[in-house]
Amino acid sequence: MTPIKPYLIRSIYEWVLDNDLTPHMLVDSETEGTVLPRNYVEDGKIVLNIRPEAIHGLTLGNETVEFNARFSGKPMHIIVPIKAVLAIYAKENGKGMIFDQEEYDETDPLPTPPGKSPNRPKLRVVK
Predict the structure, then answer these.
(1) What is the signed CA dihedral for 55, 79, 34, 99, rounded to 10 degrees?
(2) Are 26 and 87 in contact (CB under 8 A)?
(3) Within 10 A of 87 (CB to CB), how many other CB atoms are there?
(4) CA distances from 41 to 48, 49, 112 (A)
(5) What angle do CA 32, 16, 47 make, to 5 degrees?
(6) CB of 25 closer than 8 Å to CB of 51
(7) What is the pLDDT tens value at each position of the chain, 127 positions in all?
């Protein structure tokens, strides 16, 4: 099953734009694979304005969010793995979604409860 998070990011992004608001994305800059302007990172996080007028070539994929932007006049290609996205919201009213940092990888099976064997089914007689 594919993870739901990239679909939620895309839908909230569209909702924010449809309401003429400014989409912002909160990113964990310490996640492996991020390519970000390190001068703008505070406490391991960065807020990115992803309004179409502020960026170019936005791709909201299932694995990464990518776009081109300028920071202090310097062009940069931004890469944000989906797992690094902590929130997407409207700047004007804060409405959007916050994602759990500790969320398990949705492509992995659910964890097995303690004391249960995932390989042996249990059968019982019901009368």
Answers:
(1) 80
(2) yes
(3) 17
(4) 10, 14, 38
(5) 35
(6) no
(7) 889 999 999 999 999 999 999 999 999 999 999 999 999 999 999 999 999 999 999 999 999 999 999 999 999 999 999 999 999 999 999 999 999 876 545 444 445 455 555 565 666 677 7
**What is the Cα–Cα distance from 38 to 41, expressed in whole angstroms?**
5
Distances (CA, A) of 113 to 36, 110, 117: 39, 9, 8
Calpha distance 86→88 (Å, rounded): 7
**What's the whole-model pTM score?**
0.79
What CATH number is given for 5-98 in this structure? 2.30.30.220
DSSP per-residue string spanning the chain: ---SHHHHHHHHHHHHHHTT--EEEEEETTSTT-B--GGG-BTTEEEEE--TTT-EEEEE-SSEEEEEEEETTEEEEEEEEGGGEEEEEETTT--EEE--TTPPPTTSPPPPPTT--SSS-------
